[in-house]
């Protein structure tokens, strides 16, 4: 998937938890082998070239494509798994894979964890007894500074922007690079949808992203514009950001 994953497990490292960690790592390697658009031999690359049908692929391919279609419907078409007319579900796969890895750990008894997939996080439980997780959101226009610190339990956090990878998000309606804000951070319960929503809100642009967030239940957002203005929804789990 062209990125780095990390695991922060705050529970006692029982044999079951250690086995689950190995299983989660193996799962992420499997997802990379199936869905990576960087690999010509991945099922998603072969599907895009017409060498395979969906029924020829592992069952999770059909699952992911269904989730992508649901995300497109939920965002009014601003999320797409066919940017520029080519098959690429990366805007959802990373969050989906990270959330699944988190679930593997949870099922093994690790109930206080942070799984980080390239800067997008699935948080479970607490960082310590009575202490929520704290997640710094990098300021997209001020290297080395934070724009906010998110706190919470059982929370997903995803950010889309141009600071790390440049203009890599396309406007699904034009096929051209999206003229979005500097960054959009979205929080919710499940990283699968939160990650997709962050991509969609960036493509929408700052004003539409704000309007969409205010209409939703269960999602909050923080938007940093290219003019260095900061807006966050009322329920965003961080103190009001100050420019």
Order of strands, main sheet, comes to 1-2-3-6-7-8-9
- Give the mean pLDDT: 92
What is the structural class? alpha+beta
**Helix content range:** 25-40%
Report on the architecture of this protein.
This protein is of the alpha+beta class and 243 residues long. It has one domain: T-fold (Roll), CATH 3.10.520.10. The strands form two sheets. Strands 1-2-3-6-7-8-9 form a seven-stranded antiparallel β-sheet. It has a two-stranded antiparallel ribbon with strand order 4-5. It is built from six helices and nine strands. The chain has helices at 15-35, 43-48, 59-74, 90-107, 191-204, 206-215; strands at residues 5-9, 113-117, 120-124, 133-138, 146-152, 156-161, 183-188, 220-224, 230-232.
What is this structure, in a nutshell?
The protein has a single domain (5-232), classed as ApbE-like domains (T-fold, Roll). It contains six helices and nine strands. It has helices at residues 15-35, 43-48, 59-74, 90-107, 191-204, 206-215, and strands at residues 5-9, 113-117, 120-124, 133-138, 146-152, 156-161, 183-188, 220-224, 230-232.
Observed structural traits:
35% helix, 6 helices, alpha+beta, single chain, T-fold, 243 residues, two-stranded antiparallel sheet
